[in-house]
Amino acid sequence: MFTGYKITHIVSGFIAVLVGYTGSVAIIFQAIDVLGATQAQANSWMLALGLGMGLTGLFLSLRYKMPILTAWSTPGAALLVSSLNGVPMDEAIGAFMVCGVLLTLTGLTGWFERLSHYIPTAIASAMLAGILFRFGMGIFPSLEENLPLVALMCGLYLVGKRWFPRFAIPVVFLAGVFFCWATGAFSTDVSISFDIPRPVFVMPAFSLVALISIALPLYIVTMTSQNMPGVVALKSAGYAPPVSATLTVTGYATLLLAPFGGYAFNLAAITAAICANSEADEDPDTRYKAAVIAGIVYCIVGLLGAAVISLFLIAPKALVVTIAGLALLGTIGNSLGLALSDPAQREAALVTFMTTVSGISFFNIGAPMWALLFGGLTAAMLSKVRFFPKSTPQSA
User: Which helix (H) or strand (E) holds 133?
Assistant: First the structure.
């Protein structure tokens, strides 16, 4: 199974998991806290989420030989923090299962995949660049937070890109970890728990209120803010992802794991970009191996539960932000170049990019979906051939 795996596959897969957890695990804990879950139930949530991401990502990457990563719905978790207050645990679980049914039906019907084919390449690339832009920008504020660490990592990155480009990111990451260890930068405030997580089943209950206030909004934000960017991330890397099959698999995973805390699974965008770019592998046909490594690490993190998650949380923010930004620089540059390469689509691509970067949100629908809408409208309005044909003068 592990024939032909490289150090770049291992490092990219590990960085993807590191970014995935450190970027949003705190939001998951907030959602669990709002529900009033016990410690055993909280551990069950992390077990279900880790195994759900790991197993679905492993299956899809090995089945289709593409770097298909899955993730928990981060905007969905943020939605839960604000909407779960006062909702009984069993009704919340019922709402998660309804969301899983909707995700599965979306995959089985295939309508979302058909819709994704109509997105112009320039607009899709601009949206991806906008999604990843904040990670690249995050490097520079980190200089204020920890100048020696970030300067060392950036300097090594430049040296690595010049002299050993295939190993630049692994060397930068290992150097950053060693520097943090040597200077005592790892947090000592996080208590590490070594409890072995066990799945805790919660019998679902269904109510109209939970359906309207939780299930439907969770489905909408997962589709618009997670699955659409996930499709774009893979397409921008040159892949033709099996959208319907992926949605079906993640929908089934949500349906099966919801009673244990797996509230929603979807295509990953940011972590997928880490495994789908040339830093993971020069050969696009074997980049899926980085996603396989990420899937395995996700499973290990889920099985070891709170202990491993605590280890992720002790890493200084500057280390995580900088390694993520450096690992995504190539993808950001390629996406921007592709988005702006066609003069006819340039303004629409810029509108898409700027809308995504703005981070706006209306009706619980995030910026990426509004970016596609505004960019598409701009392209349509400026398409003189289709919408504004020149009128011919009337003969006297």
Answer: helix 121-137
Find out whether 15 and 263 touch, Cβ atoms under 8 Å.
no
Q: What share of the chain is helix, strand, coil (3-state, %, to 5)?
A: 75, 0, 25
Kindly give the pairing relationship between strand 265-267 and strand 70-72: antiparallel
Of the CA atoms within 13 Å of residue 131, those in its CB half-sphere come to: 33
Residues 6+ apart with CB under 8 A from 11: 169, 170, 173
Contact call for residues 218 and 264 (beta carbons, < 8 A): yes
Q: Which of 131, 154, 152 is nearest to 335 (CA)?
A: 131
pLDDT, tens digit, 9 for 90 and up, residues 97-119: 999 999 999 999 988 888 777 77
Closest by CA to 78, choosing from 199, 191, 182, 218, is 218
Identify whether the C-beta of residue 290 lies closer than 8 Å to the C-beta of residue 9: yes
Q: Are the beta carbons of 108 and 57 closer than 8 angstroms?
A: no
- CB contact set of 302 (below 8 Å; sequence gap of 6+): 46, 47, 48, 49, 50, 51, 52, 53, 54, 197
* 299: amino acid identity, one letter: C
Give residue 331's Cα distance to chain centre. Answer: 14
Q: What pTM value is reported for the model?
A: 0.73
How far apart, in whole angstroms, are the C-alpha atoms of residue 125 and residue 293? 26
| Tokens 């970016």 belong to residue | 371
pLDDT > 90? residue 57: yes
Evaluate if residue 247 carries a pLDDT over 80. Answer: yes
| Phi, psi (rounded to 5 degrees) for 71 | -150, 165
* Residue in 84, 19, 97, 63 with CA at minimum distance from that of residue 265: 97
pLDDT digits (tens, 9 = 90+) for 271-291: 888 898 888 888 999 999 999
Residue range 354-370, pLDDT digits in tens: 998 888 877 666 677 78
As a residue count, the chain comes to 396
- DSSP annotation of 35 reads H
Other Cβ atoms closer than 10 A to 308: 20
In angstroms, what CA-CA distances link 332 with 131, 223, 225, 274, 372? 9, 23, 18, 11, 18
Instruction: Report whether 328 contacts 277 (CB < 8 A).
Output: yes
- At residue 79, the 3 state secondary structure works out as helix
- 3-class DSSP assignment, residue 71: strand
